[in-house]
Amino acid sequence: MTMVNITINGQKVSAPVGSTILKAAKLASIDIPTLCDHPALVPVGACRICVVEVTGQRTLITACTFPITEGMEIQTESPQVVKARKLILDLLFSERNHYCPFCQMSGDCELQKLGYRYGLDHFIYPTYTKGFPVDATRKYFFMDHNRCVLCGRCERACGDLVANHTLGLRNRGASSMIHADANVPFGESSCVSCGTCLQVCPTGALCDKRSAYMGRNIQTEHIKSICNRCSIGCGMEIVTRGGNVLRIDSDWNGEINEGLLCKNGRFDPLYDERERVTQPMIRIGGKLFPSSWDEALKTITEKIGSANAKEIGVLASSNSTNEALYLLGQLFCKELKATNVGLLNSTAPKLFDKPQGSLADIEKSDVILVAGTDPANDQPVASFFVKHAVDRGAKLILAGGKDNGLAPFATMIIDDLGKAVEIAERAGNPVVLYGAGVTEKGANALKKLQGKASFVAIEPGVNTRAAVAFGFNNEFKASAAKVLYALLGEQGLGSEDVLKDVDKKAFIVVQASYVSPLTDKADVVLPTAIWSEQAGSLTNTEGRVQKVNKAVEPKGEAKPDWEVLSLLASKLGKKLGTSLDEISAKATQELK
Ligand code: SF4
Ligand code: SF4
Ligand code: SF4
Ligand code: FES
Description:
The chain is of the alpha/beta class. The strands form 7 sheets. Strands 15-14-25-24-23-16-17 form a 7-stranded mixed sheet. Strands 2-1-5-3-4 form a 5-stranded mixed sheet, sandwiched between helices. The longest helix has 17 residues, at 79-95.
């Protein structure tokens, strides 16, 4: 790598050719203040807070956009620079209503921090007396234009990262405002509520409704984990305070999502109002009564111990961790020889024995063929990758499904998958995203692209790859089960979905986090922890095993799903492991 030598504040610094002054300063741990700049966004030099003095330059220049050249001499805090920054801050504070003590971002706001840094202790210019509008029409967060500094981070995040292009700037000068689409209320716009704009906003202009005023960054903990709402497996940070989850932020270092999350992953888990199962329960005389863990497991052990393998039915939710699915498979399939073991969601057809691509290939593709899957609704971050590729000029071919969420972005929608394959064959770098909706005939057509295209199975459910690897399938016959063990976890199920064919006399055990019609019908209910309350791992749709971390304690007597199965195995005299590390290692080995 060619290096460029410069001097910053008298200190000799080397940085790769093409670096901006800001990047070179960061490499040398020299702090230059910024406001419109964000590491995930393309710099635009809008706010001018990062101005520096460069010897030989006529004016101050913006460090976030200006590239370094050999021998450059830079001053980052000279009297002229400080004076300019103070003027910019005075103007920013006077432009809108920035009354920090009443703002939920007070303590975390980047503008406020700059005010302290440059000693702004009073308003130099008259402040704005006119109130700017507040738009609270979106469910999860609101926009307070009074606190907006027009840095444009939100607009760039929505356009350049999410490729949704909802946001823009309207009017000019002091009347400039961030707006959605053709200036409609945000809640009526094309916004998909991914929250990326919320996360990049440096002030209190965009504000999360649920966690507002509940804690500043120094009062909260950020625990890295993996989203368990679909099979993409996005990296996230669970933000907690005092043992409670406040909100979910995206992890900018997330290997798959690189800082993106969708509504399902960022907001919905915190709006789940279903009633929790908080203690084990046993049915006595037709009614469920609270019991101890020991009693509940003993009751199950007696029933399972006296059933023959053919009478046992097992249903698994793909919301479960690798460890839980591994133990469920080992206990019931390997040890108890049960064969009637099903998965609660469908699966994508298996086209090849080995992986033939990854989600990252979408970014390099010139043609994307989507078949039998609707990522815009079911795996939204994958759809952001697709839309991003379309922005860059890639063609999107949708095989069938005019109702598909990606239809508005498609170059063509073709009913005949065979014809779609012919078009993709002529591309330079085609990528195929396929799901459970692909028929056997369709799968054979897709195979013609082997060697030419990258293939990514977009699995329905969450940990479907692991569930399939551990032996769970879509062949489950409810009517054959005399003893049914359902590992539901967080999956909500109506009794009609599962129970309609189950023998009325069948003994039903449900391991679940939430009360549902199925737990109401169960003979034994075992309470399990939810996404934020347990550790383990998940396998994403590409086969990547990622670590899930516990952020808060399980509610009531709930236990992690793997621990429940480990206890049950011990009661049945099977030694399948008692520590998470041991079980994780075995599960990961099996997945290789
Ligand atoms: S929430 Fe997402 S889609 Fe909506 S405006 Fe913000 S970045 Fe754009
Ligand atoms: S809403 Fe926030 S991110 Fe968007 S322009 Fe205003 S201050 Fe910047
Ligand atoms: S795309 Fe899937 S894994 Fe990613 S945030 Fe959304 S629901 Fe979670
Ligand atoms: S941070 Fe450089 S111009 Fe705004």
